[in-house]
Amino acid sequence: MAPHAPLIVPSVLPADAARLGEEVEALCAAGVDRIQWDVMDGVFVPNLTFGPDVIAAARRHSTVGFEAHLMVVEPDKLLGRYIDAGCELVIVHAEATTHLHRTLHRIRELGARSGVALNPHTPVSVVENVLDETDMVLAMTVNPGFGGQAYIPAVEAKVRRLRAMVEESGLPIEIEVDGGITDATIGGAAAAGADVFISGSWLYSFPAGKSAAVQLLRDQARAAMGSFPVAVGGGAA
Ligand code: DX5
Questions:
Q1: Gap from CA of 40 to ligand 1 centroid (Å)
Q2: Of 41, 135, 178, 195, catalytic
Q3: Residue pair 85/111 in contact by the 8 Å Cβ criterion
Q4: Nearest to 67, CA basis, from 96, 107, 23, 118
Q5: Distance between CA 167 and CA 189 in Å, rounded?
Q6: Ligand 1 centroid, distance to 20 Cα (angstroms)
Q7: Quick check: is 154 in a domain?
Q8: What is the CATH classification number for the domain harbouring 213?
Q9: Owning domain of residue 150
């Protein structure tokens, strides 16, 4: 499937943890398409962040869907907790799963959509045998664990390979990028074939506010997608 219209999905990581309900409401008012919760266990990545109860408490403040990016060593143990907390999409790291096919299948069995994240060093070949169990592939454009890091342009080549793989499969799989996404970097990722964009620190620090930041990112992604090479199989981008 060709890329769909760009989705702008903020990371809650930079939000004021003392006012998460209001912060979620503000993101919804800014016109975001979904909200991503960066879940970190202090082992897979050095940082420690949101438990399921925190997300459940924020759920009633949101008019958009939640996705959980599980940067944890044993995601299988946590799938049900984050889905019960209100996450409609759960992303596990390929590097943290022994049986990725089974984990992705389990996420769907539990009623959510499944996502698999690839760290910058992880090749796309890791997902080639699980595409039929996958709703979204996340190509990390930074090494996970912290917001505010520099975008890694080399990942764009990986995104291009992912897009070709998804086109070849004919499956409606989203390609998401996460880390260092700004008005200056989103175009390269979109032109490479990404259609879902996570932004945290840049979006939160944009001087004209979150609505303007979301609109600028969406406009930049749309403009770049226009240059997207015709998808494998001839479908327009
Ligand atoms: C890294 C996190 C970040 C965050 C967005 O583990 O996943 O990528 O979501 O970070 P920035 O601030 O770079 O947009």
A1: 12
A2: 178
A3: no
A4: 107
A5: 17
A6: 17
A7: yes
A8: 3.20.20.70
A9: 7-225
- Residue 142 structure tokens: 């930074």
Ligand 1, residues 11, 40, 151: which to mutate, most atoms within 8 A of Cβ? Answer: 11
Distance of CA 35 to the CA centre of its chain: 9
- Please give the DSSP secondary-structure letter assigned to residue 72: -
Question: Would 231 be classed as within a structural domain?
Answer: no
Please, are residues 98 and 104 in contact by the beta-carbon 8 Å criterion?
no
Interior CA angle at 127 toward 126 and 128, to 5°? 100
Domain-embedded: residue 233: no
**pLDDT by residue, tens only, the chain of 237 residues:** 677 899 999 999 999 999 999 999 999 999 999 999 999 999 999 999 999 999 999 999 999 999 999 999 999 999 999 999 999 999 999 999 999 999 999 999 999 999 999 999 999 999 999 999 999 999 999 999 999 999 999 999 999 999 999 999 999 999 999 999 999 999 999 999 999 999 999 999 999 999 999 999 999 999 999 765 544 333 333
Is residue 132 situated within a structural domain? yes
C-alpha 1/C-alpha 134 separation (Å) is 14
Domains in the chain: how many in total? 1
- Are 65 and 34 contacting, i.e. CB atoms less than 8 angstroms apart? yes
160 SS3 class? helix
CA of 237 to the centre of ligand 1 (A): 27
pTM (two decimals): 0.94
